């Protein structure tokens, strides 16, 4: 099962921070979950950074930075800690 | 949406007993006595409820002898259903719009360096367009939105976007939101007054994004760039911003020509031509301008293509806010300003000056203008720094040197 993760936002510190923390979250989760064999689907987790204004608007996001997992907006207009992002991603694993 | 009708429909339905009554009536016409038996209420309470339900159109009544018989009114329920749809539509109202009778809003973007006269021009344009429905999106660097105070007027709807440039990645989305909000309102004209430091190189991209949300509601009528005849050459060598503003405009207006001379004007025209081979060039004198361009298609004078803006978080200049209570001597204020003006792009605000009263303070380059204005709660200055946060120490030093009255400096 693939998990599609989009980090939405461009050109600001908060957007970069969210992207960093999301990448870290996916890496850490892949390590933690492999013991339960769930690491497989996380390995397929794609983290995409959406920076183009028109793409962002098409996704219906009007505030950045934002985090979208499998099409659902989970964080809007704010960044979050690696831990919090891990918890959010786990819900889709 | 008829707010009164909708509210009264919801109010009528918003009661437990009335909902129970309507449920009972869904089984067909019932006599009041049946309703009384089924509910735990007295006769007068029932009458009270039935009156509300009948007045709202949800229930019909028919008198037969001593008793009244009630039934549901289908039309009333249809209206209730429509009212619910009206409410559901509220969050979506800003998404997607059908241009009213094919009318699109003419959108003008106003650029020009700090102090070039954008707000003055905007006010003149709005006077010329009296009677038309006008919207304004105003972009200010400072949180205070000082220009907004000057434009505020009952006939005009305005959205302010502060704390940076609307073309910068940090505020672009807010700009698109504001455009989308203004889109469905049937304005004849929408003016976007960008901040003096705004670089509109990416305005096309922003309008494309707005189209995604609001459909084709805007008719981009042109970008007008104001050129300050007095300070132009200094500003040009300072920042790429002025260059970009000219490059991406359809009409360049040279302002403050009354303070300049023929040779300088010729030199300015040549320079503008160098930067933009195609734009129209007009002149403004004492804030007056020939507004014939409203009836022309300015977009014929297009040349440059969409590119990335130079407005980024890294290049965002430091803006500071100075607050002051009480009155100040004119001389003190003047000296203070002349101490810090070289380190600022722009200083503007309102001050309570001894013997002059409340004045709007406008500093561009080395010139300070005072214009009487209505009284405010406290004196305030917005200072846009040329030298980053280093200006903070300069401001404090200059102030201490001139007076020991208290002053507050904020970020």
Descriptive report:
- The complex is a heterodimer of chains A (93) and B (411).
- Chain A has a single domain, classed as Glutaredoxin (3-Layer(aba) Sandwich).
- Helix content of chain A is 44%, strand content 19%.
- Chain A has helices at 13-33, 39-43, 53-58, 82-90, and strands spanning 4-8, 46-50, 66-69, 72-75.
- A four-stranded mixed beta sheet of chain A has the order 2-1-3-4.
- Chain B folds into three domains: 3-94, Winged helix-like DNA-binding domain superfamily/Winged helix DNA-binding domain (Arc Repressor Mutant, subunit A, Orthogonal Bundle), CATH 1.10.10.10; 100-301, P-loop containing nucleotide triphosphate hydrolases (Rossmann fold, 3-Layer(aba) Sandwich), CATH 3.40.50.300; 319-410, CobW-like, C-terminal domain (Hypothetical Protein Yjia, Chain: A,domain 2).
- Chain B has 14 helices and 16 strands.
- Chain B has helices at 3-13, 16-25, 32-38, 43-55, 74-89, 118-128, 146-151, 172-183, 203-214, 232-238, 240-247, 262-275, 330-340, 391-402, and strands at residues 30-31, 59-64, 67-72, 105-112, 134-139, 156-161, 189-193, 218-228, 251-255, 280-283, 319-324, 344-353, 357-364, 367-372, 379-385, 408-410.
- In chain B, a hairpin with a 2-residue loop joins strand 13 and strand 14 (367-372).
- In chain B, helix 10 (232-238) packs across helix 11 and helix 13 runs antiparallel to helix 14 (391-402).
- Chain B is elongated.
- The mean pLDDT of chain B is 87.
- Classes of the chains: A alpha+beta (93), B alpha/beta (411).
- The A-B interface holds A 10-13, 53-54, 56-58, 61-64 and B 168-170, 172-173, 176-177, 205-206, 208-209, 212-213, 312-313.
């Amino acid at each position: 099962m693939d998990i599609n993760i989009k980090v939405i936002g461009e050109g600001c510190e908060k957007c970069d921070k969210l992207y960093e923390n999301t990448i870290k979250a996916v890496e850490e989760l892949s390590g933690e979950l492999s013991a339960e064999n769930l690491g497989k689907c996380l390995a397929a987790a794609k983290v995409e950074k959406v920076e183009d204004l028109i793409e962002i608007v098409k996704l219906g996001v009007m505030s950045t930075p934002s985090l979208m997992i499998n099409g659902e907006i989970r964080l809007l207009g704010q960044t979050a800690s690696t831990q919090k992002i891990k918890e959010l991603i786990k819900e889709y694993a | 949406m008829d707010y009164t009708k909708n509210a009264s429909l919801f109010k009528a339905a918003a009661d437990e007993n009335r909902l129970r009554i309507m449920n009972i009536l869904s089984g067909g016409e019932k006599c009041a006595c049946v309703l009384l038996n089924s509910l735990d209420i007295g006769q007068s309470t029932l009458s009270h409820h039935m009156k509300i339900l009948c007045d709202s159109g949800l229930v019909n009544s028919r008198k037969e002898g001593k008793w009244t018989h009630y039934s549901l009114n289908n039309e009333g329920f249809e209206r209730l259903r429509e009212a619910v749809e009206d409410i559901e539509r509220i969050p979506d109202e800003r998404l997607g719009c059908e241009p009213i009778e094919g009318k699109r809003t003419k959108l003008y973007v106003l650029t020009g360096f700090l102090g070039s006269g954008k707000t003055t021009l905007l006010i003149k344009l709005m006077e010329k367009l009296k009677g038309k429905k006008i919207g304004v999106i105003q972009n200010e660097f400072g949180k205070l939105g000082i220009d907004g105070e000057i434009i505020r007027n009952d006939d005009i709807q305005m959205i302010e976007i502060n704390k940076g440039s609307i073309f910068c990645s940090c505020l672009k989305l807010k700009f698109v939101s504001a455009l989308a909000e203004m889109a469905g309102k049937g304005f004849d004209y929408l003016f976007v007054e960008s901040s003096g430091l705004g670089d509109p190189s990416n305005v096309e991209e922003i309008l494309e994004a707005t189209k995604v949300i609001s459909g084709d509601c805007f008719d981009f009528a042109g970008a007008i760039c104001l050129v300050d005849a007095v300070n132009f050459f200094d500003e040009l060598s300072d920042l790429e911003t002025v260059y970009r503003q000219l490059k991406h405009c359809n009409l360049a207006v040279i302002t403050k020509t009354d303070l300049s001379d023929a040779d300088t004007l010729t030199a300015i025209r040549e320079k503008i031509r160098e930067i933009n081979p195609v734009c129209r060039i007009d002149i403004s004198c004492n804030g007056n301008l020939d507004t014939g361009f409203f009836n022309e298609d300015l977009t014929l004078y297009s040349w440059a293509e969409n590119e990335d803006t130079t407005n980024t978080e890294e290049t965002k200049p430091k803006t500071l806010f100075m607050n002051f209570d009480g009155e100040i001597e004119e001389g003190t204020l003047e000296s203070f300003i002349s101490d810090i003006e070289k380190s600022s792009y722009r200083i503007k605000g309102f001050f309570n000056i001894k013997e002059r009263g409340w004045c709007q303070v406008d500093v561009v380059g080395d010139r300070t203008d005072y214009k009487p204005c209505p009284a405010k709660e406290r004196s305030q200055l917005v200072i846009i720094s040329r030298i980053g946060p280093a200006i903070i120490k300069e401001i404090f030093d200059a102030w201490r040197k001139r007076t020991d009255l208290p002053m507050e400096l904020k970020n």
